[in-house]
Design goal:
- By secondary structure, the chain is of the alpha/beta class.
- It has 2 domains: 12-273, Rossmann fold (3-Layer(aba) Sandwich); 288-369.
- The protein is 27% helix and 20% strand.
- The strands form 3 sheets. It has an 8-stranded mixed beta sheet, sandwiched between helices.
- The two termini are 54 Å apart.
- The structure holds S-adenosylmethionine.
């Protein structure tokens, strides 16, 4: 099969929502538009450095990862490769995007250090706890039952990113989800087999894992990218969850498997999986001036701090006058507390009968009595 022509605009994906590119991810990533991707899931080579074949006690060969794509001459070569693909990924990420990188103890610590050195800011290290791990056949150490998935934003300073807290809570029976995910290895009907009935890809990930990744950190219609897409698990789940997807894979045989897998999915058959975060209620903005104009506060009325050590008088324009000067409830509050920002609504009190009440109570009352509908 000949290589696909590259697309250079994410808008092209509106027509053609799913793309699998055959080639080296560093090469293809560098041709994609900068800041165009909402979420990345990367399952890079593990750098297992397997020296010998592994046999079970009954002398049958273990079908582990011994593929050409996992071979590097040294850790240094692996690190340089990791630096390069992570840097190019960072460039195609939108400013509010996040990235997930999965790995085992063989590579995840190297990957994590490189991510931190490149400026990524780690949000979680999710542990995939495998319920059916491969035993340690030689009995010389514990059975390895986990892989780590690092979830990171582009930088410490990045303010916005998607986290669908309520969706994940719903998936977890109403309880907040933790960073330990108990999921079985990809087996049974989900495991893609070749014409000889053997695993088509040695490290096909379970769809449940990708379901959690994509549902938690992206929205419907978002563009998801997998630079090491293998059998196409990320793209397949993205399609089921009504997201757009780009997969990159250097081995043609896997590209073909991924394309076939995608072509067999109808997004509409998976509506039951497409959970959505409830829309946040945007509270009506109310100013102190509005409260004065509507008679909720009187001009000249006194407000004070909880300990009554400081007080101020309300002016006609909603500002207040204190011994420190004239300004907004927030500004004078900040001057009193000697901090940069103060939420005046939660700082000042007024007299109600013989009790004191936060001025925010009046704002709440105003919102109820003057609800604006749009
Ligand atoms: C760990 S596997 C990913 C498996 C995938 N998550 C799945 O569920 O099938 C890594 C894949 O990356 C591919 N790969 C390795 N180096 C690559 C590169 N430089 N560019 C693109 N793909 C690469 C390998 O051929 C392999 O299929």
């Amino acid at each position: 099969m000949e290589n696909e022509k590259l697309i250079f605009s994410p808008n092209d994906l509106i027509e053609e929502k799913y793309k699998i590119y055959n080639g080296d991810c560093i090469d293809i990533l560098s041709k994609l538009p900068k800041k165009s991707v909402d979420l990345i899931f990367a399952d890079p080579p593990y750098n297992l450095q397997l020296k010998n074949e592994l046999y079970r006690p009954n002398q049958t060969k273990v079908d582990g990862v011994n593929d050409e794509w996992d071979k590097f001459n040294s850790n240094e070569e692996y690190d340089n490769f990791t630096k390069e693909w992570l840097s190019t990924c960072r460039e195609v990420m939108k400013d509010d995007a996040t990235i997930w990188v999965i790995g085992s103890y063989h590579n995840i610590f190297r990957v994590g250090k490189i991510m931190m050195d490149l400026g990524f800011w780690i949000l979680n290290d999710v542990q995939w706890y495998k319920t059916n791990p491969m035993p340690n056949f030689r009995g010389i150490r514990f059975t390895n039952a986990t892989e780590t998935i690092i979830w990171a934003k582009k930088s410490e300073k990045q303010k916005r990113y998607t986290f669908n807290h309520n969706v994940m809570k719903q998936l977890n029976g109403g309880k907040q989800m933790t960073s330990v995910w108990q999921i079985s290895l990809c087996t049974g009907n989900e495991r893609i087999k070749d014409e000889n009935g053997k695993k088509a890809h040695s490290t096909q990930k379970p769809e449940e894992l990708l379901k959690r990744v994509i549902l938690s950190s992206s929205k419907e219609g978002d563009l998801i990218l997998d630079p090491f897409c293998g059998s196409g698990t990320t793209c397949a789940v993205a399609k089921k969850l009504n997201r757009k997807a780009i997969g990159i894979e250097k081995e043609l045989k896997y590209v073909e498997i991924a394309k076939k897998r995608l072509s067999q999915i109808e997004t509409k058959d998976y509506i039951h999986l497409q959970l959505k975060e409830p829309e946040k209620k945007i509270l009506q903005r109310v100013s102190m001036e509005e409260l004065v104009k509507s008679g909720y506060f009187k001009v000249g009325e006194e407000i004070f701090t909880k300990n009554r050590k400081n007080s101020a008088i309300i002016l006609e324009n909603g500002h207040i006058e204190s011994s420190l000067g004239v300004g907004s409830i927030h500004k004078i509050g900040a001057l009193i507390k000697e901090i940069e920002n103060c939420n005046g609504w939660m700082f000042w009190y007024y007299n109600k009968n013989s009790n004191i009440k936060l001025i925010d109570e009046k704002r709440k009352k105003y919102r109820i009595e003057h609800a604006r509908y749009s």
